[in-house]
Every structure is written in structure tokens, then in C-alpha cells.
From TrEMBL:
One of its GO terms (molecular function) is hydrolase activity, acting on ester bonds. The keyword Hydrolase applies. Residues 66-244 form the SGNH hydrolase-type esterase domain. This is Acetylhydrolase. Residues 1-27 form the signal peptide. Gene3D superfamilies: SGNH hydrolase. Keywords: Hydrolase, Signal. It comes from the Bacteria.
Amino acid sequence: MTRSTRIRPLLAITTLLALSAPTIAPAATANLAVEQVSRMDTPWWHHRFADKQAEIANGQFDVVWLGDSITQNWERNGPEPWRDFAPVWQHYYGDRHAINLGFKGDSTCHVLWRLAHGELDFRKPPRLFILMIGANNFGHVHIDAAHTYPGITRIVDTIHARFPTTQVLVLKVLPSIRSPWISANTRQLNGMLETDIRQSRPWLHLLDVGSAVEANGAPDRSRFLDPHLTPPDPPLHPTAAAQQDIARMIEPTVAAILGDHRH
């Protein structure tokens, strides 16, 4: 038998085995944005979470600000004017039984963990949740807009499932000056929110407050506090003045939901 005649049967057997082998579909890639991810191994985060749990257990709240460092910044007191946020918070929310559930560095997956582990354990249903989240999805966890969007919808639907009578105000992700990829995904995510998130959710409100950090339709470095830091960081967080503009822009909606006077 020649070498070529020996090879032909082997090729036939190999082909037959390949055709008869079961087809295995590639595993679907998990979407981290809709998972629940804890940061309890980070000491400051752990302590803040415990403090906020005690605050929830011991108080009654009508307004819940929920988000990341932009929300957490409401607790800052100067001394520089660009990071003196607390007086603005006091003006708009001091008499409204409000709680600040902002955590620096959180993305949608961390908020989902918090909601599942005590941040919905209010003694009575709040009247309004104000949600600003998504900026960090584009940062260190590097999740794009298409994957971030279902993370946001899962957050709002989780809130609604627990508190059907509570209104939810979603603020679009603020523009920043970090990278072209982040800017493109911010625009894409905000477009998805505008097109879809209010469908079948009559209890949900959506506002675009990006102009608070813009000039002539583009992000304005002077409206961000990050360039003031030492060393400076890429512009992401509004100054206290810009955040005051955000509070002013959402105030008609907030007042209407709460049924009180405009502050």
C-alpha cells in the first residue's frame, strides 16, 4: 500500500468525526453592568455603607439621591468655593427629608448590590429617587453604552418593584473630558435613555442636565473641579456652582413630584 492510499482512509475518518461531532455554541459574555458587585473589601466604602445603613434605619426620607461620586460630593464643605457643595444641598434638600446615597467610584453593578443589601430598607416608601449613574461604567470597569443601559434599567425597575408608588428621576450621564471613547459612549447611552427608558414606565422621569457643565455645546473645563486638584484629574465632576445649576434645572420636576414650593 502506498503512502497516499494510507492517508485517504484517515482523512475520510477525520472528516466523518468532524461532521458528526455536536456543535457547541460559544458561551454568552456576561454583562457586568447588570450583576451585583460588592465593594465591602474597600475599608472606606465599607464604613460609608454601614453609616448609610444606620441612617436609613433611624430616619424617614422622602428624597433619595442615588449614584456615584458626583452624588457623594453633595456632602463636601469647601473651603474652596469650587467644592463647597453642602450649602447648595441644604438650600434645595435640607427641608425635604433627603438622604445622599452616593459612593465614589460606583458603577451600575455596585448600586445594584447596594439596593439588594439594605439601601431599599426604608421605614416608609420614599416619594422620589434621583438617579445619576453610568459615568464610572465607562471608566475603570470599561463597560460600553450598550451594556450599561440595561444596568440602569435594572436599577430603576428594582426600585419600582419595591416601591410601586415612588417616582424615579433619571439624570442623563454628564459629558466629561476624559477620552473620545468615553464621550462617544456617553452620547450613545444618553440617546438610548431618551429613546427607550420611559416606555412602559409612567413613574419614571428623565432629564438632561449636561448644559450645567458645558459652554457653546461642549464640555467646559472651568465647570469641573478636577482641574483644581493636585495633581489635576481629567474633567469629570462638576464644581459646586455647576452642581447648583443641576439642582436648579431639576427643581421644577422635583417640586412637582413632591407637591411643595420651588426652592
